[in-house]
Design a protein that fits this description.
The chain has 396 residues and is of the alpha/beta class. It is built from 16 helices and twelve strands. The strands form three sheets. The protein has a seven-stranded mixed beta sheet, with helices on both faces. A three-stranded antiparallel beta sheet has the order 9-12-11. The protein has a two-stranded parallel ribbon with strand order 1-10. Helix 6 links the parallel strand 3 (116-120) and strand 4.
């Protein structure tokens, strides 16, 4: 999509401002109350159209596209997103999602019997599974620091990890924003801890790009993975992997899928892992243009405030409590349900399905800490009335 086309679409989208008035800039069902931006994001129409323009270009001459156009276009796209996230483009590659990026790091580790990978019990399930698998193959172990819940504090996070790290720890994994509990964790403090202990750090920042004012290099990690396709409005399937210059640890880094670029360097290996649709990566300029047009600092502050207001509204209506402390909150918040649900993934999904099909409200139900809770999100298309609808479902 040309810059003129992006500018034209932006004029149409941003004049709508926020809440229900901007929903027509997205593909969302106007009859739905959508409080789950955190799971899969929501792609603006203009970003979908930018990605479709790249797909049409690919189909006009696929051989020319893959062999001549794509290599330079991927590097150009990295040159757009990397500085926005506080990184150099030579240190960043695209991956399908944060889990793919975490797989690249974890499956490149050189582990031996008795070694440990340290994470937390608030970590994302898919990444925890990858760590368990990688450790089991090597005769190593995943050690999960247990964070206080509810009542988590930044200091408690650091202390729990410090107690879990020992002489056999080969990697620490920390979420920037936790998926099951919606906590913004003190990743900079954890990075300082890891430097003191001489242990490399991987930050799973799936939710961070766009939700937080993110400067990846300033975090101080060795590797960082994030999903622009969530809070940064990129087309679904757009994620990034960043490596620090001179990352610590003996890591011969490769993508999860080894292909023709093997041994040819970081960019060559990750930019080509086989025939795939790279349009979500190539349309990242349209996503950034949409995000910037909304005013990044204003948007982030609005979403944090609305998530807090909305969660309080739901908790008041249900007679329960907000479980995400204000000091560790982003654009999502966890609210206790007003009735008991078996704390299993299956029961949580069944409750989410009931809320959607009976009431037309999309909100995830998270099984954690021996109970189930709802995790509300706040994005530019949400407004207080959305949370009132959720509060009314189980109002006391």
């Amino acid at each position: 999509m040309s810059h003129n086309m992006i500018a034209s679409d932006l004029d149409a989208a941003t004049e709508l401002r926020e809440g229900a008035a901007i929903r027509e800039a997205f593909w969302l069902d106007p009859a739905a109350t959508y409080l789950n931006h955190g799971s899969y994001g929501a792609v603006p129409r203009m970003v979908s159209e930018a990605a479709e323009a790249w797909r049409r270009r690919m189909e006009r001459q696929p051989v020319l596209f893959f062999q001549e156009t794509l290599p330079a276009a991927l590097r150009d796209a990295a040159g757009v997103i990397a500085p926005f996230l506080g990184a150099a483009d030579e240190d960043m590659v695209f991956v399908e999602n944060a889990t793919s990026g975490a797989n690249a790091i974890l499956r490149s580790l050189r582990l031996g019997p008795g070694d440990t990978i340290v994470g937390t019990d608030h970590g994302y399930g898919a990444v925890r599974n990858t760590a368990r698998h990688v450790a089991a193959v090597a005769g190593a172990a995943l050690v999960e620091a247990k964070l206080p819940f509810p009542g988590t504090t930044p200091g408690a996070v650091v202390r729990a990890l410090e107690e879990a790290i020992d002489a056999r720890t080969r990697l620490v994994i920390i979420d920037h924003v936790t998926s099951p509990t919606a906590l913004v964790l003190p990743v900079e403090d954890v990075a300082r801890l890891c430097r003191r202990r001489g242990v490399p750090l991987l930050v799973d920042g799936a939710h961070a790009p766009g939700m937080l004012d993110l400067d990846i290099q300033a975090v101080g990690a060795d590797w960082y993975v994030g999903n622009p396709h969530k809070w940064l409005f990129a087309a679904r399937g757009c994620a990034v992997l960043w490596r620090a210059p001179g990352a610590r640890g003996e890591l011969d880094l490769h993508p999860p899928v080894i292909s023709h670029g093997y041994g040819s360097g970081y960019h060559a290996e990750f930019d080509w892992t086989g025939t795939r649709d790279c349009s979500p990566y190539l349309a990242v300029d349209a996503a950034l243009a949409f995000y910037r047009a909304l005013g990044p600092a204003r948007l982030r502050a609005r979403n944090v405030a609305l998530a807090a207001e909305g969660a309080a509204m739901v908790a008041a209506g249900w007679g329960t409590e907000v479980l995400t402390p204000a000091a560790m909150a982003g654009s999502m918040a966890l609210v206790a349900l007003p009735f008991a649900v078996e704390p299993t993934r299956e029961a949580a999904r069944a409750t989410r399905t009931r809320i959607w099909h009976e009431h037309g409200v999309e909100v995830p139900v998270m099984a954690f800490g021996g109970a189930c809770h709802v995790r509300v999100s706040a994005q530019i298309y949400n407004e207080p009335a959305d949370y009132r609808r959720l509060a009314n479902i189980f109002a006391r």
